[in-house]
Design brief:
heterodimer; A: alpha/beta; D-Maltodextrin-Binding Protein, domain 2; 11 strands; B: MetI-like fold; 0% strand
Chain lengths: 279, 311
């Protein structure tokens, strides 16, 4: 009996040590929001280890609008959002981080290489349903893939392309940015709106030119590409978390973060062009 | 001590029901019975409800959930019917006819299948079954016939039903097999002794006696099917569309979205008060179905108790 209680006590101490040890040595900040920004954030979190090795990030990709709500409720210390602030975002401060493009992607077997924004609108409002209407080699019906109304990306697409209208019922709505890319890759007649990172090399989809401009960093940086947009850092307006604010400043302005953003597929907007001089 | 625990659990369940219905009330109050009816596109209604709360406007509550309820009935009903037949034959085979070595392999495999997380089934669906249905089951003619209303891309009722059947069948098999094993051996031997063949004996005596277990297994599996979220959200197409049997065989490959998946996909819109109440209204319908299912299962089992086998 005594032996058993001693074993239990040792076990208890070990469990407590396991729980307390990381808490004592590392600090964790919680973030949530855009799923389209996950590929960039993963690279940035990794790169920030050089600046603050003890800081740990936990990021939940529950889509932009939900992330903003998490910050309002105090559940997250920061959020990443892909649409500009709305009247409902009371108590939040938005700051631009970097530029991203919302690409219109099709299956590589589709011969179409570019569309106008008005044509994309016709597709996602269900007005035009045949690829032949756009001079494609495919003689099939269009299979449009999109996102749910909860995604910040959808809100952006709705205002920038659909003129505020709701996407048609013939659009298959999926939960995450990557799922849209996979659906377009697997469907010859597919078309979808996908973030820059999930439509790059190896994604199995082809980006279309929009109004004559490619969904590439060059056109996005000059804001010539019609669906260029900023990724926003969302913090509470009052008493924002210091570590999250510092991370945001680093992402926005540092040379190192600019390099990481560019490598991950997005476009640095405000980052230093040259590395800081060594003292 | 045990009495207090039981009272605590009962109080918790009661509180849960009261809380969900209280939150849901404004949505039901505004729509009345029309909440369960059809009219308009529920996705557009959801968007209006969401934005009305978020843009600080007058709250909008108009919501007609029929396509979503119909989607739930089709997916759950289809999967339960399909897996019931399959599970019955498999469990009869496992209990009565399978050689010992097959039984030793089959039973752990069935248990393993029952414990596979639904997201894995969802991934298999998205990467294998959905493209297969899109490429080999749906023809271009099918797609053209409904292209202005829905997109037939493989994300469909069929994908949902097939994978859900695979998910709930192991649960049914396990419960059916336990019920069949509990049939007194003497009853079966008596029948065999009278010269009646093995299959007929087992079907007429074993399966009939184990009916309460079949009901219990079906009720549990139905509850699991109604509540399934992740996999269905991944493969059914994410559109609040009511597949129409009048469309012919296309009906099976039309997209839909059941209640639980709708709750998951709109849960991120809790920021908006009218949307929160609409989400709770959907949750209360699910909760009510679960309670009704349990009661129906209990009621069906009552006249069967005289057969001696309980589950």
């Amino acid at each position: 009996m005594q032996m058993r209680s001693r074993n239990l006590a040792i076990l208890g101490v070990l469990v407590a040590a396991l729980i307390l040890a990381p808490a004592a040595s590392a600090k964790t900040i919680f973030g949530s929001g855009s799923s389209a920004s996950v590929p960039y954030l993963e690279a940035l979190f990794k790169g920030y280890k050089k600046v603050d090795p003890k800081l740990k990030f936990v990021y939940t990709a529950n889509n932009g609008n939900a992330g903003a709500k998490d910050v309002q409720d105090g559940k997250s210390q920061f959020a990443i959002q892909t649409r500009p602030p709305l009247p409902s975002d009371s108590g939040l401060s938005y700051s631009k981080l970097f530029l991203d493009g919302l690409c219109i992607a099709v299956n590589p077997q589709n011969s179409v290489s570019g569309l106008k924004v008005s044509q994309v609108k016709d597709i996602f409002l269900g007005t035009i349903t045949e690829w032949s209407a756009f001079g494609s080699s495919l003689n099939t019906t269009i299979a449009p893939f999109g996102r749910f109304s909860t995604a910040g990306l959808y809100t952006f697409f709705q205002s920038a392309v659909l003129g505020g209208q709701t996407q048609s019922s013939n659009v298959t709505a999926l939960d995450k940015d990557g799922e849209v890319a996979v659906a377009v890759k697997n469907n010859t007649s597919g078309i979808g709106y996908v973030g820059l990172a999930n439509s790059g090399k190896g994604s199995g989809v082809k980006r279309l030119k929009l109004n004559g401009f490619g969904c590439d960093p060059k056109a996005i940086k000059t804001l010539k590409y019609p669906l260029s947009r900023y990724a926003w850092l969302v913090l509470p307006a009052k008493k924002p978390n210091k570590a999250a604010t510092k991370f945001g400043d680093w992402v926005r302005t540092s040379y190192a973060a600019g390099k990481i953003i560019a490598k991950a597929g997005a476009v640095p907007a405000f980052n230093a062009k040259k590395p800081p001089k060594q003292k | 001590m045990l009495g207090a625990l039981v009272c605590g659990v009962l109080a918790f369940v009661l509180l849960l029901i009261v809380f969900v219905f209280r939150e849901a009330w404004p949505s039901f109050q505004h729509n009345g019975l029309a909440w369960f009816g059809s009219g308009g596109n529920p996705d557009q209604q959801i968007e209006k409800i969401f934005t009305s709360g978020n843009l600080l406007q007058e709250p909008v509550y108009t919501f007609h959930a029929w396509p979503i309820i119909w989607g739930t009935i089709l997916v759950t009903g289809g999967a339960v019917a399909l897996s019931f037949v399959a599970a019955l034959f498999v469990s009869v085979f496992v209990v009565e006819f399978a050689p010992e070595w097959i039984r030793r392999i089959l039973e752990p495999v069935i248990r393993l299948l029952a414990s596979v997380p639904s997201v894995i089934f969802g991934l298999l669906g998205v990467l294998i079954l959905v493209p297969f249905i899109g490429d080999h089951v749906i023809t271009e003619g099918n797609r053209r016939s409904v292209s202005y209303i829905v997109s037939l891309s493989g994300y469909s009722l069929m994908a949902g039903v097939l994978i859900l059947s695979l998910m709930i069948a192991p649960l049914m098999i396990a419960l059916f097999a336990d019920g069949l094993r509990a049939v007194p051996r003497g009853w079966l031997e008596g029948s065999l002794g009278l010269g009646i063949n093995r299959w007929r004996t087992f079907w007429k005596i074993g399966v009939r006696t184990a009916r309460p277990a079949l009901v219990a297994g079906t009720v549990l599996a139905t509850a699991r099917a109604i509540g399934e979220v992740v996999m269905l959200a991944m493969v059914t197409g994410g559109v609040a569309f009511a597949p129409n049997p009048a469309d012919g065989l296309i009906f099976f490959v039309e997209p839909t979205r059941p209640l639980a998946a709708t709750i998951l996909q709109t849960a991120e819109e809790l920021t908006s008060p009218p949307m929160r109440q609409t989400i709770f209204a959907m949750a209360s319908v699910l909760l009510f179905s679960a309670v009704m299912l349990s009661l129906a299962g209990w009621a069906i089992k009552q006249p069967m108790k005289r057969y001696g086998v309980r589950a």
